[in-house]
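Milestone M4 deliverable, item 7.
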Amino acid sequence: MWRHLDLGRCEPLRAQAFAESVAESVAAGEVPNTLLTAQPAAPYISLGFHQSFAEELDEGFLARRRVPVIRRVEGGGTTWLDSDQWFYQFVYRDEEGGRGGADDLVRLLAAPVRAARELGLPAELRPPSDLVVGPRKVSGNAGGDWADAHVLVGGMLGCADHRAMSDLLRLPHPAIRRIVRTEMERWVSSWEAEAGEIPTYGAWRDRLVGALRALGLVDARPGRPAATEEKRFRAETVPRHEDPAWREIPPVPRRPDAPDRRLRIAGPHGVVVWSDPATGGFDVAVVDGSALREAYRIEPGTVGERFEPLEVGSRAFVSVGERLRTSARFD
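Output delivered:
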């Protein structure tokens, strides 16, 4: 039997990172495997474990919005999170919960799929980790290990703030932001957009717990954080996340032929950018898997977002496709 910790509506760091303190207790056998549910009370930016603060985030956006930046212990990309999203986090040991990784994601995500359908959202799993309605992503999920416990996390998008999602990203040229936002609007959706009415956090939480039990995946019963978990969160987890050395891990050196920017939007859909040192311009590829769907040339001196796509089949379009094949793809 698992423990269910309902953190409810809480401040962002607790919503995202309390699971790290729980993982220490789960790994030591002090508490059962645990399901956490939460709703962040305020907006924040979440960085994936391997991502660079300096490479990912736009300084102007951070100065304007002044929201917290929290690094996850799981993988995945940079995300904008706010109170219109609901979190679920699975923290477990090998012998009782699974081996971690993609297989566990596929198995456990059957529950949020079922819960969403019961509440009127026709979601399905796009392996390994996205929940989608049609081709559009409505939930992102990721996994990692912490303190010898597995941690799988996910969140349902009640609403999707595409402007914040795109504006927070550091991009080589301001004009590229229009392309990124268009792709986000195309491939990232939300409960509001797909079903109209958004259920309450409580309704979603209860359906999720019920779906886990009905599917025979997790029998999670209500519990409370242990005193040691609360103490560890205050004494270790919070200071770690407030330390710039943790939040601002330096970037990994790039290969000389690597793109200047490679952004996965959702599933196989992404945007890739290369600079042209000779002219100061940029080539931009809009990608579906390994296929080039659209290409753009941002000429030196381009101001604002007024530019046109390259003609399919043109020499310039083919040239962008050749760069794509040799250095970047999304599968």
